[in-house]
Amino acid sequence: MLDWKNREAKAEPRERVDGRGAAARSYLGGLWSRALGTLIGLYLLVCIGLGWYWSQEPELFPVQQNAQAAAERGGQQMVVGYTTIETLKTVAGTLLNKPGGYISNDRFPPGLWMDNMPSWEYGVLVQVRDLSRALRKDFARSQSQSTEDADLAKAEPRFNFDNKSWILPSSESEFEEGIKSLSRYQTRLAAGDKGAIFYTRADNLNNWLGDVATRLGSLSQRLSASVGRVKLNTTLKTESVVAGQAPQVDEELVETPWLQIDNVFYEARGQAWALSHLLRAIEVDFADVLAKKNATVSVRQIIRELEASQEPLWSPMVLNGSGFGMWANHSLVMANYISRANAAVIDLRQLLSQGLNMAISPNEAAHRAASDRELVSWVDEADQVLGALPRAELRERGLIGRCTFILLFNSAGELCVHRRTLSKALYPGYWDVAAGGMVTAGEGDADSAARELAEELGIEGVELRFHERFYFDQPDNRLWCAVYSAVSDAPLRLQPEEVIEARFISIELAEEESLAKPYCPDSLAALQRYKASQS
Length: 535
Description:
Layout (H helix, E strand, L loop, with lengths): L3 H51 L8 H12 L7 H16 L18 H24 L10 H10 L11 H20 L11 H23 L4 E4 L18 E4 L6 H25 L1 H6 L3 H13 L21 H25 L7 H12 L1 E5 L5 E6 H6 L3 E10 L5 E6 L10 E2 L2 E4 L6 H13 L7 E10 L2 E11 L11 E7 L1 H7 L7 H14 L1
Parallel strand pairs: 5-10
Antiparallel strand pairs: 1-2, 3-4, 3-5, 5-8, 6-7, 6-11, 9-10
Helix pairs in contact: 2-3, 3-4, 3-6, 3-8, 4-5, 4-7, 4-8, 5-6, 7-8, 7-11, 8-10, 8-11, 10-11
C-alpha cells in the first residue's frame, strides 16, 4: 500500500528547490537587464557628450602667422603664392583634424546622428573645391593654352571626391591625398622651380571671385527662404514667349523645408569660415594687384562681413522666427552678412575689371607736386613741434605731422561726405567724412581748419567749433589731429584737384557705407571722437 503522505512530504523539498532556482534565475536576469540598461545609458551619455564636443566649430586662425610658421618648419621661402597654398591646406586639414575628425561619412553614433557639423564641413569643402579649381585653371597658368601644373591637376579631383564615402576609399584618404599634392606644388614653388608658378594677375583673381559671388548669392537666397515668401519665377525660358503677347509671369512659393533650415545655416557658416581665411591669404599674395586697383580696403570689408558671421550662436538651436515677429531668425541674420559680403565682392570685381580708369588731369598732377613740396609742421609723439619738413619727406620717412578735420553739417544734421581725387598720395579715390589737411609750418590749428574748409568745399565765414585732439598712428599715416565741426547750408564749391563729388547724408548711413566702401580711416576716427564729445 502506497504511503501517500510520505510521498507528498518528500516532494515538498524538490518544489522548494525549483522555486529557489527560478528566483535565482529571475534575479540574475534582472541583474543583466539592469547592467545592460546602465551600459546603454552610459553609451548614450557618452554619445551626447561627444556629439556636443564634436559640434564645436573651429576658431579662426591667423593666416600670415600660420604660413610663416609652416615656412620656418620646412625651411622654405615665403614666395608669392605660398600663403594662399598654406591657407588652403590648413582649411582642408581642419576638416580632418578638428575634434571628432571628419564626420560627414560616419556610420556610427554620435556622428551618424549629427547634421549641423556635416553641413558645416560641406560648406568648407565647397570653398576648398572652388579654390583648388581656380589654382589649377587660373592661378598656376600663364594663359588658357599653357600646360596645367601636374600636382594641382591631381589635387582638384581629390577634393571633389564623394564627401560621404566611408571606405574603399574613404573621403578622408582622398582629401589627404589632395593636401599632399598641394604640398608638393608648394615645395616646388618655394624652391623656385620653373614649372611651379603662381600668377598674381587681376583677371585670375577676378575669375575666382566670380565663383565666390555665385556661391554667396545662392547662400543668401537659401537663407532668406527660411521664411516662406512668394516670388516671381525668373527661370522662364525666352523661347516660351509668343511674339505679340505679353509674357506670362508665374509666381511660386519659396520656402526651405523645416528640417533643412539648420543645415543651410551651418553650411553658410562653413563657407564663410573658409572664405574669410582664403581672402586673407589672397590679400597677402595679391597685395600689389589690389593696391594698384585701389581694392585692398574692399577685400578687408568682405573679410569683416564674413568674420562677423562667425559670432557664437548662444541659442541651443537655430531659431526661425518670422521676419518681424517676436522670435529671432538666425537664418535672416546670416543672410544679411552674406548679402553684404556678396555686394562687396561684386564691387571688388568691378574694381579689378576697370581699375583706376579715371585719368589724372594735368591740374591734379601739378597740384599734387606742389602739395608734396609744401612745408608742414613736424611734431613728436607728445605733439611737440620739432621743425618743418616737405610733406612728401614727412610721409616717406614715417614721421608725425599735424592735421585738422572739419566735420561739415547742414541745418538738418546731415554730414557732408566727399570722394577724394585719384591723385591723392594717401587714400586715393576714398570717401572722406571730413574736410581737412596738414597744418603748414607756423600755422595754427584753427587757421588751418578754416583754410582747408574753404579750399576743399568752398565754405567760408562759418563758426568752427573745436572738439578734441587725438593721435592717429598707422604705418603710412602718423598724425596729431584736431577735430572741428561747422554748420552751413551754403552751396558747396568743390576743389576739382582734391574732390570728385560730395553729398550730405546721415551719420548712420556714412558709418554703414564705411563697412562696404573705402572710407578714410583717419577721418572716421575723427568722427568717432566727435560723437564721443556729443554724448
